[in-house]
Amino acid sequence: MSLAPAKLRWAARDRKPEGSIVDVAGVPVGSREVVMMAGPCTVEDEDQLLRTAMAVKVAGARMLRGGAFKPRTSPHSFRGLKEEGLRLLSQVAREVGIPVVTEAMDARQLDAVCQHADMVQIGSRNMQNFTLLEEVGRLRVPVLLKRGLCSTLEEMLFAAEYIAEGGNQQIVLCERGIRTFETSTRNTLDLNAVPLLKLMSHFPVIVDPSHGTGRRELVVPLSRAAVAAGADGLLVEVHVDPERAKCDGEQSLTIPGFGELMEQLRPVARAVDRAL
Amino acid sequence: MSLAPAKLRWAARDRKPEGSIVDVAGVPVGSREVVMMAGPCTVEDEDQLLRTAMAVKVAGARMLRGGAFKPRTSPHSFRGLKEEGLRLLSQVAREVGIPVVTEAMDARQLDAVCQHADMVQIGSRNMQNFTLLEEVGRLRVPVLLKRGLCSTLEEMLFAAEYIAEGGNQQIVLCERGIRTFETSTRNTLDLNAVPLLKLMSHFPVIVDPSHGTGRRELVVPLSRAAVAAGADGLLVEVHVDPERAKCDGEQSLTIPGFGELMEQLRPVARAVDRAL
Amino acid sequence: MSLAPAKLRWAARDRKPEGSIVDVAGVPVGSREVVMMAGPCTVEDEDQLLRTAMAVKVAGARMLRGGAFKPRTSPHSFRGLKEEGLRLLSQVAREVGIPVVTEAMDARQLDAVCQHADMVQIGSRNMQNFTLLEEVGRLRVPVLLKRGLCSTLEEMLFAAEYIAEGGNQQIVLCERGIRTFETSTRNTLDLNAVPLLKLMSHFPVIVDPSHGTGRRELVVPLSRAAVAAGADGLLVEVHVDPERAKCDGEQSLTIPGFGELMEQLRPVARAVDRAL
Amino acid sequence: MSLAPAKLRWAARDRKPEGSIVDVAGVPVGSREVVMMAGPCTVEDEDQLLRTAMAVKVAGARMLRGGAFKPRTSPHSFRGLKEEGLRLLSQVAREVGIPVVTEAMDARQLDAVCQHADMVQIGSRNMQNFTLLEEVGRLRVPVLLKRGLCSTLEEMLFAAEYIAEGGNQQIVLCERGIRTFETSTRNTLDLNAVPLLKLMSHFPVIVDPSHGTGRRELVVPLSRAAVAAGADGLLVEVHVDPERAKCDGEQSLTIPGFGELMEQLRPVARAVDRAL
Q: Whole-prediction pTM value?
């Protein structure tokens, strides 16, 4: 029995019952290993990025994350270093020897993003930006597709279907919290999504506990929970000095905090027959 | 007392306490007149569009609506006639003598849309497509900004702020239903938004009862309610043969149904000192 | 075509296609007249209640509302005058000559409430308190059933069904706002509920714009909208001095404010062929 | 730093920073051991209950669950064996030697429930049935307080506060899924609640993955996730023959399924330094 919506041609589990593995510059997402992607919400400067990248790599992260183009609710907020941020990302990634994922907010940014990054992120607000999905579907680059703030899992799989329809099957799905009535967290991380997406689709599924909760003190327990639920990876915000972060400091781990997270995740990964 | 978020520079009511009027090819939105915008969900062919446009104009609509580029959950659904649809829209609009509003889903469609339409619609899924908002902010074209499916009113005003920051102040806000737990309607039309947006901002506010409810039998009572709540206009789906519509037939009025709507709205508009 | 869930035996529209009229001590709810029920959130003292009751009656209210037993989130908040509040309600109601509705929170309060009030209110938090519904179903007293904060319309009709199953068909349904992600209002008043409940069921439907929005400045426009949508009545909080109210002052109208509301509602009621 | 709302006198973490342990007839909830509570949604007959109770005890459950009074959306659904169900529960619990938890829907059922059960459950629909909370606060019986379908964590702690205010501190909090827009699961299990409630309050926190997801195939992965997030126990529906269950069969584990769940949970519990 497949749980996927009947009209999915590419994203349904039946299409590849053994599950897909997406190769991001040598890092296999969807394999036995739980892949840790870590880094700052926003690229701020070279020093910040380099120190973070080295530290998370040493602690066990397999990929670097960092925002150059930042979607912000208000036009008056800091919106990222843009092209300069992309250059810093690729320079630091090469120096440290770690693949990098970063967001493209628009089809016209795709060229620059693909030139500098190993994986393109489609953010929550763009999960149903269908022209962006189509454009990224024409490329041959790994895509990290984040769930929309109020998107159903069915809608998310149809968003993946847009990308796959163009010929690009290198898709990783990411649960990152949904909007509910609850006010004590920024979003409600929906871990039901992990086993359900895996039953419905063959694409790997990762979890972003930083945006999913919006509070640093919840990142460790929810990361353990995500791995126990079967996630293929985690996307975690880490900052050298969260108090001074230009964006989302209250949900970023410190570098020692990230080390502690790795410590706590290893036995959980083993308990569900995964490596970390 | 202004209810607007503190950081709004352009969209706050204080900026223009008397309220803005947006001129769309001679039709003033935000004046004493409640402006009816009507037409098919999707442009299907010339005959359908022309018959609908003539009929809604005769019944009292001041603007024609119709989709050429259609955002659809699944890539396998009909996604509009695209450029051909735009051409039909402008041809019919000229023939009938009625301004037209249609959606642009991407910055790269803006040129074509602006060439053929009098007002550009930013759809719900793109309310936080910030690059699209910035691009439309650089133009001098009236913009219909629809509320995102799970966007707060504050986020909606910041989306308007993105457009206004670029210099384009010709913005009309549109409530079109939000996503809630309720399953007996497609969306939950949030009429609180009408007086609240008008308290918070100087931009005109219209309502889309067709998407807001998703059910034809609710369009008339909710349209009356929207006008009574103070809406500056309505955006209504009308189809010559809803049973055969390629999209959203179950929420489209027939042509006689639109006439009946106009009949029922006139006394309500008068009751709140508006004309129709 | 009935829109009601298939398993409704008593609440479905088909059961009484012409609609029910509920008689509350001589006031017919569900007739051509839009019935105004007004009064303080909470009974505080005799003077407050008497002045409010006289003023709202003079302005056109047909029923008095007021809480004696108050459900409060925290046990440390003021929870009403209880039995003393009931006595004040019935004394003032007799003096002023106006029927009164008040809430019973528990089956054991029903005797006292029925002795002093003309209509029993089942509050939002108790919409699925099934033993209370069954008890009230055994009585022959008019019931005001408020929608639960996150109850679907189908669940609401099944709650009415519990009451009706016991033999009590004197039920008035009340939309009072639902819980959504939106934070600028206390609740999201769902006016879709008005025409939809009337299509699904024969019971009268009224609206509580005070709880539905939580903000005084929204009560007038949403009341107009509710009447335009087809509501059979309104339940409105009015206080002689909202700044000093023990509960919900920010959503209560002043006495002149209630007079202004009545002024504005009359033409809207006429516009939809209703009296007020 | 306490995260609890300022006005909590009894439920705040500060009140008992080391955390509370609730003793249910010898089973300590809130200790190092993750406590498994298992059994049928509804008591149907002696044979069903006895076989289930023995099987779950052998597999490692420490408590039996089972409904005698069943809150059902429709009055026409099976609503439990009531007093007869209570008698069966206590008889089987004695025979098998396992404490039992069951729901009381009304203050008037408390005597009977307390006579037959070791722990009283306050169900989701009654989380804000304040008179029931007050009554149970006067007793000296362990209470399982389930989160309301759309209750915030703050509201849940205030519900616990009602019970504690009466003098009864033997409270276990239970996350059981909230209502959101997502339609592919019955509810959205909110595992953020586990670490957050533990930061805010000293009461133990358990999780009900059966109602939380509504789908059998999600119970195992979400149970693992709940334990990894720090839950002090799980409440799981188990039926000897789910296809024939009178209620909620689609979310009930079979008896072998429960054994498999225990197998999978043990290494996860060890990974987070807990016993099972």
A: 0.96
